[in-house]
Each structure stands twice: as C-alpha cells, then as structure tokens.
Fold:
Amino acid sequence: MNFLLRQEMLLMIRGLYFCMENKWSEIGKEYNITPAQQHILFLLSVNDNELTPTKIGELGCWHTSTVTRLLKRLETSGYTNAKTNPKQARYKIVSMTAKGEELFKKLFNTAKGMKEFPFNMNHLSEDEILSFLECGKSILDVHKGKDFRKSVISKQMDNYDYA
Structure:
C-alpha cells in the first residue's frame, strides 16, 4: 500500500480518536471520571462485572501499570473493588460496586442522550457508517483477533435498561 495512503489513514484514525476523546471527556467532567476510567466501567458492565486486571489491560489496550493506576483511582472513589480470585490466590478479580454501577448508568444515559456522541455523524448515511465499521472490524480482526471484537466492539449496550 502506498505510504501516503497509510499516513493519511493513520492521521484520520488519530483525529477521529481525539474527536471522540473530547466528547468522552466532556461527559466525564460532570462526574469527575476520565475516559479511561469510563471505559473500564464499560468493560466490566459488558463482561459480567468480573474481569482480572490482566484482562482489563487486554480489552482496554493498556499496559499493566496503566491498569493498576486506573483501578486504584476507581477503587479509592468507591466505584470498583478487587478481591482475591478464589481459583488462583495470586490474582485479583475486579468488579463494579453498587456506586460504580450507578455512575455507569448515569454515564450511559448521558452518552445515549447526546445526538453527537461520540461525534457528529449526522451527515453520514447509515450505509456509510456500516461500511466504515466493516473496514474497522476487518483491521481489528487481523490485529486484535475476533475474541477482542466479540468482547469489546460487538457488545451491545441497547440491551441494558438504564432508564
């Protein structure tokens, strides 16, 4: 593939990420929570509210030290707790507390109510969005695997009743 085309793709994806990150930050300011912390709550909510820190790192695409730092803040705030894994005492299981679940419901409803979340796409047709998603899925499947897509990307939040 032409290098300039790859460069344009890289810069476009990076630009889209920062547009999305700005909206996510906007929501987080209201609740004093970062986009990364919001993502951990999302990951817990769509994965039966139990993940190891290692799995959070895999699904969130973070280094272990980043996960540790993020979880510490969430636990200090009372949004998550970590308990010893009964099957392997050396490992922890992270879950959301009732306070964390309540916060996630508020975050979810705030995002769901924003017509321009994660960014303004009103000028695109549904077919254009679906085509973009198919291309993204294809790239992710090669680099992260189908299990990643099934555990993160393909999780549907509409099934959750957070009204």
